[in-house]
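Minutes, project check-in
Item: structure for the 216-residue chain
Input as provided by the requester:
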Amino acid sequence: MPLELALFPLNAVLFPGGVLPIHVFEERYKLMVGRCLEEKLPFGVVLIRSGREVGGPAEPFPVGTTARIGQVQRLEGGRLNLLALGEQRFRIQDVLQTSPYLVAQVELLQDEDVEGTEGLADEVGAMFQRFVRLTLGLTGQWARTVGLPSSPSALADAVAQRLPMDLRHKQALLETLSVRARLEQERTFLSRALPEMERRFARLQSQRWGAFWALN
């Protein structure tokens, strides 16, 4: 069923289940957020395809994510800091309004090709946990656990939200409705990234232990 949705074009991609901090300072978006808060409405986060995030018109990519406002911090001059909580993919069908902010008729999208992806999701989840631990280890940090959702669909989106991909790659994942295809793309990304991270971590450990023994 089509839904009328206010749109917030940003230089960011939000996935279902993801969290995105947003600083709201333009009058048009203060107005939009105020209406969403007052009427308890969602809005749509969309990546900018062309145009500017601030001051001018922006053309968004056709697929985005509905978001609810989780937390709000009110600042001087009516500015706001908020946390947008991603809920569901949508596709823009028609732009209904361009001023003072974009409003579109959208179609909510459903995941596809979910059945039989549990094993692949477990593999991607284990690779991502290793990726996070190596990332932390390279900066002298450590984590006992890396929390991930249990369902393949939610796990694929959680990994996509947190991987350091360029925005167009993230957008391509957002537009991919097949859960299997999303997981396979993430496995490919991680299988390429992990060996180099392992080598960097091994060199760092060697340097740390070398310095330790040199002092004794």
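Outcome recorded: Strands lie at 3-10, 19-24, 43-51, 58-60, 63-74, 80-97, 103-108.
No further action items on this chain.
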